[in-house]
Write a structure and sequence with these properties.
By secondary structure, the protein is mainly beta. The protein has one helix at 103-110, and strands at residues 2-9, 13-22, 27-33, 45-47, 61-64, 75-77, 80-90, 94-102. The strands form 2 sheets. It has a 4-stranded antiparallel sheet, with no helix packed on it. Strands 2, 5, 6 and 8 form a 4-stranded antiparallel sheet that branches. The N and C termini lie far apart (34 Å).
Length: 111
């Protein structure tokens, strides 16, 4: 199965994507933007176990989408609405929030 969101972009630029999620086991997702894969690094994204689905404890965690080597994934987006889809490739995961972050700000978060 998959989940898809419409993401409005007010200013063209290069963005990273951050998710607030919870998972009881490592979850794996493939990402599509506007119906297409942005590249092979956008498949098999790993979301580590957070300890549960926040039903009895605060298990939420923030994560920037990253390639297997650990670098933050980035995508150039034009002004307008874009479709972001996460396709389930293994294990359950709750998603609470999703943000587009200008790549310069995302790099600062990583430091």
């Amino acid at each position: 199965h998959w989940l898809e969101w419409t993401i409005p972009v007010a200013e063209a630029g290069v963005y990273a994507i951050a998710l607030r999620y919870a998972a009881r086991a490592q979850a794996t997702r493939d990402c599509r933007i506007d119906g297409k894969t942005p590249g092979p690094d956008w498949d098999g994204l790993a979301f580590p176990d957070t300890g549960g689905y926040s039903t009895s404890a605060d298990n939420w965690s923030w994560q920037l989408l990253k390639e297997r080597g650990g670098s933050v994934l980035q995508r150039e987006l034009t002004v307008g609405d874009h479709a972001l889809r996460l396709i389930n490739r293994g294990a359950g995961m709750a998603v609470d929030a999703l943000f587009l972050i200008p790549i310069d700000c995302a790099k600062e978060l990583e430091q």
